[in-house]
Specification:
- The protein has one domain: Beta-grasp domain (Ubiquitin-like (UB roll)).
- About 15% of the residues lie in helices and about 20% in strands.
- It contains three helices and five strands; from the N terminus they run ββαβααββ.
- The longest helix has 7 residues.
- The radius of gyration is 12 Å and the shape is globular.
Amino acid sequence: MAKITFVEFNGTERVVDAVANSTVMETARNNDVPGIEAECGGSCACATCHVYVDPEWLEKAGERSEMEEDMLDFAFDVRENSRLCCQIKVTDELDGLIVRTPERQF
């Protein structure tokens, strides 16, 4: 089981347990993490689970797919470390992952 730290826009940190093979988005929803709307339920059809992956975790979190890149066009304040957390699969390698939520999702 991996631990993921969600840092809200206001600086509040939440460390939660994540089940392997779930997604970071599912983990956020299962733990009532504010700032992750996930309106499409994880089908990469919206940008309401936008997060910023801390730079030291970018490589381990994997690269954005073309579909994810397209969806991020609809996100607010996209940065180099922006990801849709529905597209980040939880693995043991992500134990300690830190993601930050944007000021708003859209």
